[in-house]
Design brief:
Layout (H helix, E strand, L loop, with lengths): L1 H34 L6 E5 L1 H6 L9 E3 L7 H9 L7 E7 L14 H18 L3 E7 L13 H18 L2 E3 L28 H25 L14 H9 L3
Parallel strand pairs: 1-2, 1-3, 3-4, 4-5
Helix pairs in contact: 3-4, 4-5
Length: 252
């Protein structure tokens, strides 16, 4: 048992070093991009699935990618705590959970799922003042050969994300739905290049763009409908010609 505990501690240490280095590499670019954030920007946060999407046009809005590959929910929360967003953006999209279901983390244990839910709750509370609308993606399916992750935990941890969204008023989306093979947490053939990362992230970017555009477009339409039309200013009646002539003659 002692040897197992030491091995797990070593895994955590190695993981922290790897993700910490990646964040250090990405931080200058992320901070520069955030300085240019605008009210119509969309923030993309989370793990490598979010990072590898890049910065596509999301529903006609510029994307600022603040994701860090390899992140767990706890890592993501720490990274976000080190950032500042100067304006409230239109939306934020979170993709997280793939690294939380690694088998050596024992995702089958209830307390591990509880900790994941608490960590994601902290992320959402941080994103809420940064974005008018927060989207949370379901955990993507994994390949059948990805032995290091637990496919059964995909549905369990995704249910925790959906519950957080229902309780907090966030938008839960599943851009990975077309690529799932049933409800067991596995993907259909050809989706991945290594059982975890997608072979092509362009379809995911397109799915996210559709989700953001439809949701925010609906909100924008409702907001526009709720705003009464501006009163029409009618021009004042023209002054009689003799008054205008008298005023002109009387000018110094």
């Amino acid at each position: 048992m002692g040897a197992h505990w030491i091995e797990t501690a070593a895994r955590h240490w190695r993981h922290g070093r790897i993700v910490g280095r990646r964040f250090a590499e990405r931080r200058p670019g992320i901070r520069a991009a955030l300085r240019a954030a605008a009210p119509d920007s969309v923030l993309l946060a989370g793990n490598s699935h979010a990072e590898f999407v890049g910065a596509p046009d999301l529903g006609g809005r510029p994307c600022i990618n603040i994701a860090v590959g390899g992140s767990t929910a706890a890592d993501c929360g720490r990274h976000l705590a080190a950032l500042r967003v100067p304006v409230r953006c239109a939306a934020a999209v979170l993709i997280i959970g793939t690294n939380d279901i690694q088998r050596w983390r024992h995702p089958e244990r209830a307390r591990v799922a509880d900790r994941f839910e608490a960590d994601v709750g902290g992320i959402l509370r941080r994103l809420e003042p940064w974005a008018a609308r927060v989207f949370v993606a379901a955990i993507p399916p994994i390949g059948a050969g990805a032995a290091g992750r637990d496919p059964a935990a995909v549905a369990v941890f995704t249910a925790r994300l959906a519950a957080l969204c229902a309780a907090g008023g966030y938008a839960f989306i599943d851009p990975f739905a077309p690529w799932r093979s049933g409800a067991g947490g596995l993907a259909g053939p050809g989706l991945h290049r290594d059982g975890v990362h997608l072979a092509d992230y362009a379809p995911l970017a397109a799915a996210l763009a559709r989700a953001v555009a439809v949701d925010i477009g609906t909100i924008d339409a409702r907001a526009s409908a709720a705003v009464p039309p501006a009163p029409v200013r009618r021009p004042a009646p023209a002054a009689p010609l003799r008054v205008l002539r008298a005023a002109w003659i009387g000018r110094p």
